[in-house]
Amino acid sequence: MSGKLNDSVEFCDRCGADFQGEPIPEKSQHLFGATHFSRKIGIYDLVKDRTVEYQCPDCGHTWKR
């Protein structure tokens, strides 16, 4: 994989929580295209077969994908 890996720096618009999670082991980072896991919670719609919203793990705020 070429290019810079995503460092997952994101914050909640409501509470300011940092969504950057634990580091991904360096040998596996190329598989994820990122250096860290994300703490965001994906809200999945079975009918649409995709993630439709995300949720902050700290305050519960949700926003559209």
Word description of this protein:
This protein is mainly β and 65 residues long. Helix content is 6%, strand content 32%. The protein is built from one helix and five strands; from the N terminus they run βαββββ. Strands 3-4-5 form a three-stranded antiparallel beta sheet, with no helix packed on it. The chain has a two-stranded antiparallel sheet with strand order 1-2. Strand 4 and strand 5 form a beta hairpin. The two termini are 25 Å apart.
Proportion of residues in extended strands? 25-35%
Strand order of the largest sheet: 3-4-5
Instruction: Write down the overall mean pLDDT.
Output: 92
Helical fraction: under 10%
Q: Which stretches of 5+ consecutive residues score pLDDT under 50?
A: none
Number of helices: 1
Radius of gyration from CA coordinates = 13 Å
Shape: globular
Instruction: Report the biggest beta sheet as strand number plus sense, adding barrel if it closes.
Output: 3 strands, antiparallel
What structural class do you assign from the helix and strand content?
mainly beta
Order of helices and strands: EHEEEE
Give the end-to-end Cα distance, rounded to a whole number of Å.
Answer: 25 Å
Number of strands: 5
